[in-house]
Predict the 3D structure of the following.
Amino acid sequence: MSPLKKGFWAAAVILLILLIDQIIKIRVKTSMALFDTVAVAGWFNIRFIENNGMAMGIEVTGKLFLSIFRIIAVVAIAYYICRLIKRNFKLSYILFVSMIFAGAAGNIADSIFYGVIFSESTPAQIAVLFPPEGGYGAWLQGKVVDMFYFPLFSFTWPSGIPFLGGSRFEFFKYIFNFADASISVGTAVLLLFYRKDFSLSFEKQ
């Protein structure tokens, strides 16, 4: 397959993931109050939260710095994908890297735009898209929308176990979005099946 066709498929995957991700996020944000939960199945819920930090709610630095760092990272991945296409790497490898790029770009879109285009979500108030009074924050200050919650099983540790005794364990307790899933799947597949290709991609031609 020619590099041009590989570029087309990479762009198609990126646009599709971005579209699905943003449709889900906008739907959740404009129809659910913060922390609302919809039970889809016993092991699958839609629970609306907003993430002000990195994956799984981790906050390690200021929001503005984090947003700028994300933008730089996405630009670097975009450049990497362009190099892969130019060097005519495997289409499958390019597509999985594109999944990581699309997921990262989807979350960056929240950080860049959501503070400006949405009113604030609270437990008592559903957000409005393009509110007349303006958004809840500035550019690069938006919060990432998360919604997928999979509490597959949980239990309480026996009281005799040091440090853990009496505490509750839940799998999977983290709430994530479609973009996070795209990043996780793309990264996992690359680590499992494409380590050689990853190494080759950094070798000089």
In short: Strands lie at 37-41, 44-51, 144-149, 153-156, 168-171, 175-176. DSSP finds five helices and six strands in the chain.
